[in-house]
Design a protein that fits this description.
The protein has five helices and six strands; from the N terminus they run E-E-E-E-E-H-H-E-H-H-H. The protein has 152 residues and is α+β, with helices and mostly antiparallel strands. The chain has two domains: 33 residues; 102 residues. The strands form two sheets. The protein has a three-stranded antiparallel sheet, with no helix packed on it. Helix 1 crosses helix 2, helix 1 packs across helix 4 and helix 4 packs antiparallel against helix 5.
Length: 152
Amino acid sequence: MKCPYCAFTESKVIDSRPADESSSIRRRRECLQCQKRFTTYETVECLPMIVVKKDGSRQSFDRSKVLHGLIRACEKRPVTLATLETITSEIEQELQNAMDREINTEAIGEQVMNRLKDVDQVAYVRFASVYRQFKDIDTFMLELSKLLADTK
């Protein structure tokens, strides 16, 4: 950390404490050359994720949209909101860890379906019917047969 007074690059930390409701750390430092003190703040860098939609348009990732889709798929099903929030957090974390700044909606949809398949199969079929835009009963039956084959 460069001293704001003499530009020396070596300093020692005198005090550290959480700041901004524990979203950052406030550090008091002392320059090893001029002995003047200064304050720095350390925060986690959150790079924005951009979602590339089917039509090619781009928008910021919004976890509430993923959660809303899960809630709609699990309407009148025995799935708790806590479970849906956990799924949403897992998907968001996996996307952040992938370090891809641009994510296709297909990748997000597949992750949602993979998790729904384990939680509630009816919700999975509901989500798949909207996500994959089933055109007729044959494509719907094909998806159901895949689901049945996976459970056996």
